Every structure is written in structure tokens, then in C-alpha cells.
Amino acid sequence: MADLALVCGGRGALGGAIADALRARGDEVIAVDKDDVDLTDPAAVEAFWDALAETPRWLVNAAGGYRTGTVADSTPDDVSFLADLNVATAWWSCRAAARRLPAGGAIVNVAARPAVSGGAGSAAYAVSKAAVVRLTEVLAGELAERQVRVNAILPSVIDTPANRAQGITGGVPPSQLASVVAFLLSDDSAAVSGAIVPVYGSA
After folding, report:
1. Range of the domain at 114
2. Neighbours of 146 (CB within 10 A)
3. Domain count along the chain
4. Is 2 helix (H, G, I), strand (E, B) or coil?
5. Is 200 a catalytic residue?
6. Which end of the chain is more exposed for a tag (fewer CB within 10 A), N or C?
7. In this structure, what CATH number is given to the domain that contains residue 179?
8. Taking a C-beta distance cutoff of 8 angstroms, is the pair 196, 152 a contact?
9. Rounded distance between C-alpha atoms, residue 107 and residue 193, angstroms
10. pLDDT confidence tier of residue 203, bands split at 50, 70 and 90
């Protein structure tokens, strides 16, 4: 029987690649975005999970957003926007999963390189992604007894059409990031939990 994976943000460049990689290996995939459920709304997230006919084994939190700006020039809207899209989406999905995932299940959160180094010029983004890293580490400890694993990946630049259109090159293709996520959502990585995995490429 195929494993069921829920990919939040599953219609974006990275989320879509992750969904494709999981389908290619035989998983059943539910790819959701903001048109399916408001991932920033805890009640909506709980209702969505309650309505699923089958409990997923795998969860990926790939929803998120990005804005530039220093601490000094940040606006309340910048901070709340990135806290909602990067922290709240992961938090409420993780909470729902923590209540439901079976033993042998796993969660992968998508953080970012500025969460652990640098971040100047993208302050609110870096801080919000740092919260995703800490959420991952805390939840890995909380779910260890239930044999549910929680890990995160740290992309740097992702090679997407949108980034190339802005002259940003040299990134890691989404398909390669998806391969790392697929490994973390597999029995081959059964010994890995609480890991924060850099996926920066060779640049």
C-alpha cells in the first residue's frame, strides 16, 4: 500500500518538485496551497486534517514567503507577513501532525540558510526561518517516544524561473532539493531526527 504524503505549499516551485518526487517513488500525494486551506489559521488546519480520509505518514511544510529589509527599516507588516507565512504555516501543520502521525511517520520543514548564518538585509525573513529551525528541533524531541521524526532542510538560492528572471543564478534545482526531502521521508533515514540539513549546492 502506498504511503500518503501531505505537501503544504505543494504547488510552488519547490513544493511541486517535492510532490513530483514523492509521486515518482510511489507515494500518494496531497498537495495543498492557500486555495485549499488557510495554513495560517489553526482552526482551518485542524478541520482540514479531520476531513482527510486517511492519516498521512509524511508531512512537508514548504509554504512560505520572502521579503528583504533590515531590522531598522522593517515595518509591522513585514514582520507579521513573514511570521504568518513562514512560522504560523509550519507551526499549525506541525501541531496537527503531532496529534495524528503514526509511528514511523516523519515531518520535513523547509527553513533557509539565513536561519543559521547571515541574514543581513533580510532580517524578518531570517528570524522567521530561524523559528522554523527551532520548531523542528523542539518537535523532534517531543515526538521521539512516538517514533515520529522531524527534520528540516536549509536551501540557499533555489534555481527557479522567478529567481532567474531577477538575474539570480547558480541556485540548486528544486528537483535536487526534493531528492533530499524524499530521503528524509523514507525508512532509509530512520535514524535521522532533529537534523538541520544544509542544501546549498557547490556554489
Report:
1. 4-199
2. 13
3. 1
4. coil
5. no
6. N
7. 3.40.50.720
8. yes
9. 9
10. low
Cα–Cα dist 66/51, whole Å: 30
Dihedral, 1, 23, 185, 115 alpha carbons, nearest 10:
-160
- SS3 of 30, please? strand
Q: How many CA atoms lie within 13 A of 201 on its CB side?
A: 16
Alpha-carbon span 5 to 14, nearest angstrom? 15
Q: Which of 49, 91, 92, 125 is catalytic?
A: 125
What are 30-62's pLDDT values in tens digits?
Answer: 999 999 999 999 999 999 999 999 999 999 999
Residue 184 predicted with pLDDT over 60:
yes
- pTM of the full structure: 0.95
